[in-house]
């Protein structure tokens, strides 16, 4: 920020010729919210950009601290190598109340973002960011200017003005605030130390908060003088009566030529303190001591520098008695034609008390204060630097025990750790007021004394380090290591009952492998981290006594307790429990072949009702059982591809497999084969259907060789005798119980009946008889019951009386019917010789209602005969009639009539 007091500072990375850290202050008005505030850094690599250097892209404008003041200095650390970067800022971010020093350490490893924070007191608290912050060349003092009028009655303004502090370049701590008093109505802005770090110069101004020209006052404070805070020496004061010499605030800055330059706003020159180490006028102040280039005017500020640039000195890494102390000469010692002489202030070391090396080492045998003097001889000048150092006793460190604890219920690998015992053990009998014990999470932190770990904070497993240093010398320390082992706690989850199948004795006692239950109890925890043992009681488990084997002969409903221990810490344990269950072993009885008789298809395949076997298979055994059927033993063992209970066999004799499972445990089952067999359907035959005579009794026969028979009549014999027509069924059953049924239908022949005897008559030779019958036939006919013919017509018959015989060829029946052929005789001889004495219609008596009339040739009725009488004797009215032809007419009752004539012969 171009308006900040100390806007930037460039520091080389220790032990690196290419990298430079650029620290900058960015200040904005918080009311506008413009820009970013605070302390930032960027890293420049001079090997980039063809040797011209450039900012490393990912290390640009990195914020270290938000909203700091405009104050910034850099000081060499006590080891002569590292650097402290210090600013003044808020303890409460955003409050704009500045009350803390923040010291960041730059080492060969880079900047440590964890600051050493020093809260001085409310007396130095300010709300103004402006004013310089400087460190003395020897790095022991700090001067801070805060611009504004000092009003000790107002707490918000009491911290303004000029302050002097002590600075510990070993720890970065700022301490011992002391106000530098000056006349009222002045405001402090610029400041600088003399080269010997004794004198403090303070720039003061009277008007306009320092930005409007006013009276200037330059004071000198001699820190070696008594009550120096209240007795400054005036080096320069503008003329109160001459406004032409009024200027604004200005910076004071020591330069490489060991002079202090003083900016004069809008002037073409700088004021110069030619001899900064001189007291009062011996300082040789020159108001217009350095003319600037033509056309160039001075402004309010001057660039600040790292204090190591101005006083060739030396650094060291402090050792302890009996250990190596490392010294480092200023870089000027490496210039051409330059030599160095070291005096380590240790005459007892003999010739080792001196060295001409640039960076030598020395071992001090005993503790004490030693004066080190470095003389640097350059071609143009000799620089001498002296410093007292304190070599302290070498601390001793005792071995400390590893901290082995159990994790908490979160098992997150972190736990609160109390290092009190560790610190006490490491210190041993040494004086805690002389030796300081710290604990660190890394060896580097221990070596650099960073991040002392707090008691009872949360830490994870790993190697930690104890550092003991002499409080009088931070460079004198020893370390040892120890391990924190946060052992994971077993956190058992509920364990399922351990279930096994009983053997076929079903005695409720069985051998268990308890391992699986123990592993289940660990849930998602890594089982390789824990051991587990088993017990019969919780008390035994708690006391870790009377353990039982993991292969254990247990009983049903027995409770087993398991103790989990972390294998690296047996104190991390937990107890859980589970129950043993012995499930009843189902057993399939020996099964008879499941036989079914084939049906009428005779294809030797049938539907088997397998469910009908379940009661036999389960046989009232204990437990909730499931029966299933399978085509292969493997399927039955695996409980795969169960068959439907209505199952059709594949072969006439097929073996399937029965699985009987206890539902409490799928591995508790029995498997046995079952033979399905379709028995051939027997074939039974019987007498074919036939007919019989109605009165006939006949025998019906069935096939032999069956175990039993059952007729529809109820008969159980192979054959039966029947007399009635009908259908007779027989079921024949073989030895396997398979049966076949057949039937015989018996019908009676129809009864033969002569329906009609038709007679052709009233002829002499051409008479015939035709017989019409009903019945099954075939029939034979006879009129003499001796000769039978197949024709039902008899011809060429003489008149007379006949018996017609009809019989069927089945031999069942013989039927007869009378037949009469009526005919008129062609003549008669009424001469009383006993032959043909009467004329009568032959067989007319069979028609008793017939009327017979005899006429002469003239149609005269001569006689009416009775069909049952003897006939006409040839007489008419007592007189014989003459021989001649006579006519007759026969009228039958059915309406037929016959006419003819006959001859009367005498």
- Supply the helix-strand structural class: mainly beta
- Radius of gyration over C-alpha positions, nearest whole angstrom: 74 Å
Could you estimate the helical fraction of the residues in percent?
Answer: under 10%
Low-confidence stretches: none
User: What is the molecular shape?
Assistant: rod-shaped
In what range is the share of β-strand residues?
35-45%
Question: What is the count of β-strands?
Answer: 66
Distance between the termini: 196 Å
Per CATH, which architecture of the largest domain?
Answer: 7 Propeller
**CATH topology of the largest domain, which one?**
Methylamine Dehydrogenase, Chain H
Number of domains: 8
Largest sheet: 5 strands, antiparallel
Q: How large is the count of helical segments?
A: 6
Classified by CATH, the class of the largest domain is: Mainly Beta
Mean pLDDT: 89
Protein name: PKD domain-containing protein
Pfam families: CHU_C (PF13585), PKD_4 (PF18911)
Domain PKD: 328-391
Organism: Nonlabens dokdonensis
Task: Please provide a written account of the structure.
There is one protein chain. It is built from six helices and 66 strands. The protein has 906 residues and is mainly beta. The longest helix has 8 residues, at 420-427.
Set out the fold topology.
Layout: E1 8-12, E2 19-26, E3 38-45, E4 54-55, E5 62-65, E6 68-76, E7 83-90, E8 98-107, E9 110-111, E10 116-119, E11 133-135, E12 141-146, E13 161-167, E14 174-180, E15 187-193, E16 199-205, E17 216-222, E18 233-237, E19 252-254, E20 260-263, E21 269-273, E22 285-291, E23 314-317, E24 324-329, E25 339-343, E26 354-355, E27 361-363, E28 368-377, E29 382-391, E30 403-406, E31 414-417, H1 420-427, E32 435-440, H2 443-448, E33 457-460, E34 462-470, E35 473-487, E36 498-501, E37 509-513, H3 515-521, E38 530-535, H4 538-543, E39 551-555, E40 559-566, E41 569-583, E42 594-597, E43 607-609, H5 614-618, E44 625-630, H6 633-638, E45 646-648, E46 653-662, E47 669-679, E48 690-692, E49 698-700, E50 708-711, E51 720-722, E52 726-733, E53 739-748, E54 753-760, E55 767-774, E56 779-782, E57 793-797, E58 800-808, E59 814-821, E60 827-828, E61 851-855, E62 861-865, E63 875-876, E64 879-880, E65 884-891, E66 897-904
Parallel strand pairs: 30-35, 36-41, 42-47, 48-53, 60-66
Antiparallel strand pairs: 1-2, 2-3, 3-4, 3-5, 6-7, 7-8, 8-9, 8-10, 11-12, 12-13, 13-14, 15-16, 16-17, 17-18, 19-20, 20-21, 21-22, 23-24, 24-27, 25-26, 25-28, 28-29, 31-33, 32-34, 34-35, 37-39, 38-40, 40-41, 43-45, 44-46, 46-47, 49-51, 50-52, 52-53, 54-55, 55-57, 56-58, 58-59, 61-62, 61-65, ...
């Amino acid at each position: 920020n171009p308006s900040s007091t100390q806007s930037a500072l460039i520091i080389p990375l220790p032990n690196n010729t290419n990298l430079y850290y650029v620290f900058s202050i960015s200040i904005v008005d918080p009311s506008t919210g413009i820009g970013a505030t605070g302390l930032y850094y960027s890293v420049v690599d001079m090997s980039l950009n063809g040797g011209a250097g450039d900012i490393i892209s990912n290390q640009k404008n990195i914020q270290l601290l938000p909203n700091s003041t405009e104050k910034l200095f850099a000081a060499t650390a006590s080891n002569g190598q590292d650097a402290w970067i210090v600013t003044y800022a808020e303890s409460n971010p955003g409050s704009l109340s500045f009350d803390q020093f923040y010291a960041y350490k730059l080492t060969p490893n880079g900047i440590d973002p964890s600051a050493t924070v020093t809260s001085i007191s409310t007396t130095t608290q300010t709300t103004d960011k402006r004013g310089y912050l400087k460190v003395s060349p020897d790095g022991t003092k700090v001067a801070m200017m805060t611009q504004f009028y000092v009003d000790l009655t107002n707490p918000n303004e009491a911290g303004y003005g000029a302050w002097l502090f002590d600075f510990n370049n070993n720890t970065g701590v700022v301490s011992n605030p002391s106000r530098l008093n000056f006349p009222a109505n002045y405001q402090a802005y610029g400041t600088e130390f003399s080269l010997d770090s004794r004198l403090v110069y303070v720039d003061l101004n009277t008007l306009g908060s320092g930005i409007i020209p006013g009276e200037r006052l330059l004071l000198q404070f001699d820190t070696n003088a008594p009550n120096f805070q209240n007795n400054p020496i005036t080096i320069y004061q503008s003329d109160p009566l001459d406004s032409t010499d009024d200027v604004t605030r200005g910076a004071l800055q020591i330069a490489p030529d060991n002079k202090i330059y003083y900016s004069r706003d809008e002037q073409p020159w700088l004021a110069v303190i030619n001899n900064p180490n001189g007291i009062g006028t011996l300082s040789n102040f020159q108001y217009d001591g350095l003319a600037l280039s033509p056309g160039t005017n001075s402004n309010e500020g001057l660039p600040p520098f790292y204090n190591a640039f101005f006083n060739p000195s030396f650094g060291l890494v402090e050792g302890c008695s009996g250990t190596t102390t490392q010294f480092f000469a200023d870089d000027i010692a490496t210039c051409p034609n330059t030599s160095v002489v070291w005096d380590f202030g240790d005459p007892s070391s003999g010739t080792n008390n001196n060295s001409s090396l640039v960076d030598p080492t020395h071992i001090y045998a005993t503790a004490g204060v030693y004066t080190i003097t470095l003389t640097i001889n350059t071609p143009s000048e000799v620089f001498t630097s002296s410093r007292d150092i304190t070599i302290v006793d070498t601390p001793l460190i005792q071995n400390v025990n590893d901290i082995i604890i159990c994790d908490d219920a979160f098992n997150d690998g972190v736990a609160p750790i109390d290092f009190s015992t560790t610190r006490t053990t490491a210190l041993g009998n040494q004086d805690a007021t002389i030796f300081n014990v710290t604990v660190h999470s890394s060896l580097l932190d221990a070596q650099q004394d960073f991040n002392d770990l707090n008691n009872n904070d949360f830490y994870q497993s790993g190697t930690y380090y104890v550092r003991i240093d002499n409080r009088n010398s931070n460079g004198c320390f020893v370390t040892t290591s120890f391990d924190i082992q946060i052992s994971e706690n077993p956190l058992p989850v509920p364990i399922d009952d351990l279930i096994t199948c009983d053997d076929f004795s079903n005695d409720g006692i069985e051998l268990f492998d308890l391992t699986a239950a123990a592993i289940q109890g660990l849930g998602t925890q890594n089982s390789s981290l824990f051991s587990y043992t088993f017990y019969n009681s919780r008390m035994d488990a708690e006391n870790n006594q009377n353990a039982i084997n993991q292969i254990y002969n247990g009983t049903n409903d027995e409770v087993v307790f398991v103790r989990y221990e972390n294998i690296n810490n047996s104190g991390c344990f937990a107890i859980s429990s589970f129950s043993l269950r012995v499930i009843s072993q189902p057993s399939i009885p020996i099964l008879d072949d499941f036989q079914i008789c084939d049906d009428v298809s005779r294809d030797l395949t049938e539907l088997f009702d397998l469910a009908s076997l379940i009661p036999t298979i389960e046989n009232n055994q204990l437990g909730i059982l499931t029966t299933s059927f399978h085509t292969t033993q493997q399927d039955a063992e695996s409980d795969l591809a169960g068959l439907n209970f209505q199952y059709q066999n594949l072969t006439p004799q097929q073996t399937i497999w029965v699985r009987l499972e206890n539902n409490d445990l799928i591995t508790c089952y029995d498997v046995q084969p079952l033979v399905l067999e379709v028995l051939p359907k027997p074939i039974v035959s019987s007498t074919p259907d036939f007919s019989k005579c109605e009165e006939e009794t006949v025998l019906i026969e069935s096939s032999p060789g069956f175990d039993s028979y059952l007729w529809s009549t109820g008969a159980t014999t192979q054959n039966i005798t029947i007399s009635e027509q009908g259908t007779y069924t027989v079921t024949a059953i073989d030895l396997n119980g398979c049966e076949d049924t057949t039937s015989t239908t018996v019908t009676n022949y129809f009864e033969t009946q002569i329906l009609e005897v038709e007679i052709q008559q009233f002829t002499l030779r051409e008479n015939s008889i035709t017989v019409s019958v009903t019945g099954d036939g075939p029939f034979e006919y006879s009129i003499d019951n001796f000769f039978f013919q197949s024709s039902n017509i008899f011809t060429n018959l003489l008149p007379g009386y006949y018996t017609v015989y009809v019989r069927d060829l089945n031999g069942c029946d013989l039927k007869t019917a009378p037949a009469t052929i009526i005919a008129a005789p062609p003549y008669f001889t009424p001469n009383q010789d006993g032959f043909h004495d009467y004329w009568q219609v032959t067989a007319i008596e069979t028609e008793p209602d017939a009327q017979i009339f005899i006429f002469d040739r003239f149609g005269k009725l001569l006689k009416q005969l009775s069909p049952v009488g003897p006939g006409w004797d040839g007489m008419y009215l007592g007189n014989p009639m003459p021989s001649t032809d006579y006519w007759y007419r026969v009228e039958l009752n059915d309406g037929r009539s016959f006419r003819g004539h006959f001859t009367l012969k005498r």
